Amino acid sequence: MSTQPLPPSAVQTSPGLARTRHILGLVVTHGLLLTGAAFILLPFVWMLATSIKPPDEVFTATFSLWPKRFYGVENYSYALTAAPLLRFALNGAILCGGILIIQLLVAIPCAYALAKLRFPGRDVLFVLVLLGLAVPVQVPALPLYIGLANLGLLNTYFSMMVPFFLSVFAIFLLRQFFKSFPDDIIHAARLDGMSEFEIVWRVVTPSAWPAIAAFSVFSIVAHWNDLYWPLIVITDASLAPPPLGMMFFANAETGSNYGALTAAATILTAPLVITFLFARRQFIQGITMTGVK
Amino acid sequence: MAATAISSAEAGLPQGRANRQALVEKLVGMGFAFPAFLLLLVIIITPLIVLFYLSLTDYELGALDFRSVGLGNFQKAMSDPVFRRSLWNTVLYVSIVLPGAVGLGLLVAVLVHSRKRTRSFYEMIYFLPVTSTLIAMATVWQVLLHPRLGPINAFLRQIGIGEVAFLSDPSLALPTIAVIGIWQLVGFNMVLFLAGLSAIPKDLYEAAEIDGCANGIDRFLTITWPLLGPTTMFVIITTSITAFKVFDTVAVMTRGGPAGASEVLLYAVYLEGFQYFHTAYAAALTIIFLVFILIFSVIQTFVIDRRVHY
Amino acid sequence: MARVELRALAKSFGAVPVLSGIDLDIADGEFLTLIGPSGCGKSTLIRMIAGLEPQTSGSISIGGVSIDHLRPHERRVAMVFQSYALYPHMSVFSNIALPLTMQRLSLWERLPLIKLLSSRRRRVMPEIAREVRAIAEQLQIEHLLDRRPARLSGGQRQRVALGRAMVRHPDVFLMDEPLSNLDAKLRVHMRTELAELHQRLKTTFIYVTHDQVEAMTMSDRVAMMDAGRILQLGTPTELYERPINIKVASFIGSPAINLLKAKVGHDGYIELMDRRLTLQTPLEPGADVTLGIRPEAMFPASSEEIRTGRASLPASLRRKENLGSEFILHFDVAGPASVVARVPAGPVVQAVNGSVELSFDVAACHIFNEQGERIEPNPLDSCELSRPRTLVASGGGV
């Protein structure tokens, strides 16, 4: 029962126009996304391309991606023999594994206690945890370095891991998760005669699996790629994790053996990237959960 | 018995049992929290106290005696042209990375969100830099940007612009590193924005469509942008903090050069503390660094606390 | 005139058909309800009319003009969503005003900051404010205009959603289960309000619900849908009194209609539990049929009530539900089957206990064949009616 005239646009939209607009929208969207994707992929593609090129082709600086002469075997074997790249990767794995295990062993009971138990000092501890969230590792680095130097612990796996044994972030994240765990189940477990220790590890922890997985992704990505702290405490190349190893390798390589340099970069980037490609969902979920809190 | 002293809070329950349960809970709680507390003390709190103390002295690593200099280190920092430049460079870096990484992250997220079949394809590509080792990729960027051998300059030569010395031109070094910073952060921010976008009910877009929001700009301004507000604030803060901590790319690609044009705060702290061993001075610089980080964190806590739950 | 015509409308998601061959004429100013179980396609249909889902084939026109190629906002329809879909970051005022600002201001007059430069905007906005206030007054929500939706109750949100739809004076109101998020009491109240609103506005309403009470109480006509088709279209009374098949019969009415297995006897009369009823059908002798008897047509009988035109079956009481003014009685009958009767409160109900004869009006029986389709009984000749002994089956002593 309206007396208003139809809006002018009603007359203008024809089926052809609608389809044109739809297609135009798709072209613009994918155009923008693909341009961005090209920018993102550029270093990855160039890394792979250069790592299989012989030096003379690298120096001619052409755009060709595939080399005229396949030189991959030489580059990769040179990179592997010139520097202990696999050792760097192993160090990275030891570093990430050691840190993660201790982080979880420390954080899970603490998070449970903060979430579900009443004990003196709980609130103080939680405030300290919140404050700790704001302190990046670069801040206590100096005193920790002096302490480790005085104890003669520099250049050890331990020195590389110790600042990260406590993850206030893990405590914070898991506490949020445990808070929503039903009290009734804990009470039932107590009535069934379980000790608190068993409740933590056999009842509560399995329920927090998504949070633990998310945190693990976050922790591994962070420490595999961390340069700052290893750069400070490690001078022995045989202990270097991937980023530091890469730096050693780049410095040692006289300037422009780009084939070997990109081969090394490929080898050290590959483990995490390949894991990511296979467990993309978990990675992205992990970052979302830890990122948004 | 110790239990009797603690019991009064648990009035109402049979005295003995309630006391014992509360006591057990206290002991267990403290036991569970103890390792974390100990580590907190050793790794964060004690170092912080030592750091504050050191910043007020003239200690250098290995020195046998040292004395207090009050706020001397801070005064020195304020008048130190090297430090002031590194602070200014850091602010400049953040001011390039922040709009770039947040804006592009948002744009990519909005575009990707509307895709169905290609969504995971784009997600994967944009997220790739987040998982890859920045040091290795920085080395590759160095190759890409090489004045004579890099493909980017080869391309620029071909289209007639000529060589650009991205990393050795003092006016370009920092912006170039900032672009790499954006390259690394876009995917991360995209993922956060995507999470925010999927939390917006589809109904609202449909209602808006019926109400006359016909084009993308209207839909974005009416629904997406306002409802993404809390996510955006969060992304802005985390991006600021990450950008403020820039270190890896500078350490690998320019080492602060050329002529200090890309020297940033954390790199200055690293040099003073672990290369020149001006420990006390580095402690003061670290505290200045911490103050900036804390400002961001306070804003973050403030924003998250009053995050609007519509 | 806002006559809505749907012609051969179909929709499929990939190979899965959701709607097929929908033909529907909705008169100007009519209140038409689409009802059906979830997944029957009723929401898809209304969303297609709104333009939110493209149809696979067929056409939609409003007021004789095809709207197939129009985008949602060009169709002059308004929609109230099940979740209300209020913009959470906007005040009630801005929520209601949005359709008008979209209509009357150009893009740059709506852009943040830049909009402040527009003088036309300064002229248009007071107009819009006046109209929003007028609508708010009608809905009695003037005092809420500054609030955000989060601070409103369910009923208030409902009204804001209505206001946002009304403010544009659309040709057609589309409502997708608008009351299903309200509590029972408020739902009854809003039902009345919606019906009154329709009377006042005299606009076409297309209303989707799965609640048959809403359909029965508000609509001019009801379209019962199932599996992507319209099973029956008619007034609420028609659907209730002459359901076209078992699905319609059992969906409409609460408590649900009683369905009893029966057979066609050798002489064409229907036999229920070995008792012969005065219902003759054109069906072959021996065919299976289903009898549908509404609960209110059932009555626990004392002997004097078995009169002409009624039949009865033996039953034993399982449970009584006291609704105050009436009772719902649950019986077990041979079969075994369960039968529900709705009986006004009174001494008769109080007395019911154990085994009884359940009496029902034979004329109120709905007959459905093996395919579940409605079968009309043959008209009874007068001589049949005059022979009372045939009314009750031979074995059934009263």
Task: Provide an overview of this structure.
- The complex is a heterotrimer of chains A (293), B (310) and C (398).
- With 293 residues, chain A is mostly helical.
- Chain A is built from 16 helices and no strands.
- In chain A, helix 5 crosses helix 9 (168-179) and helix 12 packs across helix 16.
- The two termini of chain A are 52 Å apart.
- In chain A, 42% of the residues are buried.
- Chain B folds into two domains: 1-45; 86-264, MetI-like (MetI-like fold), CATH 1.10.3720.
- Chain C folds into two domains: 4-241, P-loop containing nucleotide triphosphate hydrolases (Rossmann fold), CATH 3.40.50; 256-396, OB fold (Dihydrolipoamide Acetyltransferase, E2P), CATH 2.40.50.
- In chain C, the strands form four sheets. Chain C has a six-stranded mixed beta sheet with strand order 6-7-8-3-9-10, sandwiched between helices.
- In chain C, helix 2 (92-104) packs across helix 4 (119-138) and helix 2 runs parallel beside helix 5 (154-166).
- The longest helix of chain C has 20 residues, at 119-138.
- Residues 382-398 of chain C have low confidence and may be disordered.
- At the A-B interface, helix 2, helix 5, helix 6, helix 7 and helix 13 of A face helix 2, helix 4, helix 5, helix 6 and helix 7 of B.
- Chain A: It is a multi-pass membrane protein.
* Count of helical stretches of chain A: 16
The CATH superfamily name of the largest domain in chain A is MetI-like
What order do the strands of the largest sheet of chain C run in, or round the barrel if closed? Answer: 6-7-8-3-9-10
- Given this structure, which CATH class of the largest domain in chain A is correct? Mainly Alpha
Please give the radius of gyration of chain A in angstroms.
27 Å
Low-confidence stretches of chain C: 382-398
The structural domain count of chain A equals 2
Largest sheet of chain A: none
Counting copies of identical and different chains, the oligomeric state is heterotrimer
- Please tell me the overall pLDDT of chain C: 86
User: Architecture of the largest domain in chain A, CATH level 2?
Assistant: Orthogonal Bundle
Give the rounded overall mean pLDDT of chain A: 85
Overall shape of chain C? elongated
Approximate shape of chain A:
flat
How many DSSP-defined strands of chain A?
0
CA radius of gyration of chain C is: 27 Å
Distance between the termini of chain A: 52 Å
